[in-house]
């Protein structure tokens, strides 16, 4: 014979109702049976609690209850299908919420995280995105983050870093030269949407940084790495200068200096005037300026040498012509 649960005391009922409201708000739809099992109560008790919620609320400015001052549910669904769907919420709606733009930005970030190999098929990320969409002050814009072409490359490199094995690949450097490299992978880092591999380059016999979208014909090997992270010193900055770098004079907004600090040589003069700074950056090739300028459009201006200005101007003109 099934054991009957003891009737709830008044204090228990209040705690039950306080827990039930956010539970229902957190779900678009839930069955009476599922909710009753979650709280360990009889289905009849759960139904009574839902009916009580539906006549609860906060009086408006007239201190009298109006239809919009009460919780409401989808009654047909409740009575006919034993399903609970909150169609109107009060009181808690007055708490601060993300704006539609804020929620859309967060959802885009979560979509990017879910696209990474280590986060694939994680239901918790999908659940969080749904909560953000429901909890925003207005419906967020529909956003989608496309999978990157480097996703597969990133997965192979992560496995090699974890296993401590060498990688073999073709690499296209900033000067357009392609070489076969054998590398001890030591660290993976990202800047904005770009991913970089840092490791010991056996061809250069030095620490080098490789951008993943320039890696081709990647092969994982069974050869153990020669140098481990504790054996070498990885520079604090992602980009290290070389004697072959080219110096380019630029003018940039003072607030954007932290964004390009890795490109500014140590000791480079900075002349600040009216919120603008004139200084120099180092690049491996003038064509490398394209991405830098594109990321700071309207903020950074190339001043000198003329060849650098010409390369950037031609690139910008070619891009503009595609829209004509």
UniProtKB/TrEMBL annotation:
<dbReference type="InterPro" id="IPR028349">
    <property type="entry name" value="PafC-like"/>
</dbReference>
<dbReference type="Pfam" id="PF25583">
    <property type="entry name" value="WCX"/>
</dbReference>
<protein>
    <submittedName>
        <fullName>Protein pafC</fullName>
    </submittedName>
</protein>
<dbReference type="InterPro" id="IPR043839">
    <property type="entry name" value="PafC_HTH"/>
</dbReference>
<dbReference type="InterPro" id="IPR057727">
    <property type="entry name" value="WCX_dom"/>
</dbReference>
<dbReference type="InterPro" id="IPR051534">
    <property type="entry name" value="CBASS_pafABC_assoc_protein"/>
</dbReference>
<dbReference type="InterPro" id="IPR026881">
    <property type="entry name" value="WYL_dom"/>
</dbReference>
<feature type="domain" description="WCX">
    <location>
        <begin position="247"/>
        <end position="318"/>
    </location>
</feature>
<dbReference type="Pfam" id="PF19187">
    <property type="entry name" value="HTH_PafC"/>
</dbReference>
<dbReference type="Pfam" id="PF13280">
    <property type="entry name" value="WYL"/>
</dbReference>
<feature type="domain" description="WYL">
    <location>
        <begin position="152"/>
        <end position="219"/>
    </location>
</feature>
<feature type="domain" description="PafC HTH">
    <location>
        <begin position="12"/>
        <end position="133"/>
    </location>
</feature>
